[in-house]
Design a protein that fits this description.
alpha/beta, five-stranded parallel β-sheet, four-stranded antiparallel β-sheet
């Protein structure tokens, strides 16, 4: 059985020790970094399954490391911050992070979010019919997790892909905020609409000709989102 390889990047050795002990109890192989530059080096060398990244690191802060990683590799990222501002959370998600945890955090919270992110990043063991779906300019290969838009392959993070898969599989149906959050992120996220709004925006930026006036992923005010069968 594959042991998830996780990197914890934080300049506080106590945080690294605490998080590492939790991860090891969950069966993870743990690597660490004490600053942003080292985090980038370790990711390049070790090809982890997940990165847990503190915002307030010296030299290169977590925001910049997150941006650089999102441009270079498809690795899920959980951001850590001693501040709980919504602006920081939204900024991290917009930079490509998959989740955000405010320090101090409970062991149960970290474990739940760890499992949720790893679940979203795994390839499915089996794929039910249909194995592919075409909607206008967008083609989704469910077997290979491959998405093409107007003939060009688009790179999506695991969470972006799962959200798109849910929308495309239910094209023409209005899906509520709660339903999407529960199916994609898990039951512990159903009240956190900020995640959904940011990831919808990320998908529109990658898929739509005009993200401000989307043809496919349409907002149904006060309810949720609808993926149109055709633009």
């Amino acid at each position: 059985m594959h042991r998830p390889r996780v990197i914890i990047a934080d300049d506080d050795p106590l945080v690294v020790k605490f998080v590492s002990s939790i991860l090891k109890k969950e069966g993870c192989e743990v690597l660490s970094a004490t600053d942003g530059a080292e985090a980038l080096e370790v990711v390049d060398k070790e090809s982890p399954d997940l990165v847990i990244l503190d915002i307030g690191m010296p030299e290169i802060d977590g925001f910049e490391v997150c941006r650089l990683l999102s441009d270079r590799v498809q690795v899920p990222i959980i951001m850590l911050s001693a501040r709980g501002e919504i602006a920081d959370k939204v900024r991290c998600l917009n930079l490509g992070a998959d989740d955000f945890i405010t320090k101090p955090f409970a062991v149960d919270e970290l474990v739940a979010r760890l499992k949720s992110v790893l679940r979203r990043s795994r390839m499915p063991e089996d794929v039910q019919e249909p194995t592919a779906c075409a909607k206008g300019d967008i083609n989704v290969d469910f077997l290979r997790r491959r998405v093409t838009v107007r003939g060009a392959e688009i790179r999506l993070t695991p969470t972006e892909y799962m959200l798109l898969q849910e929308l495309v599989s239910n094209a023409g149906k209005v899906l509520s905020h709660t339903l999407l959050l529960g199916r994609v992120w898990g039951p512990e996220y159903v009240e956190d609409r900020q995640f959904l709004h940011v990831f919808i925006s990320r998908l529109r930026n990658k898929l739509e000709k005009d993200p401000q006036n989307p043809d496919y992923i349409v907002t149904v005010s006060g309810i949720g989102y609808l993926f149109k069968d055709s633009p």
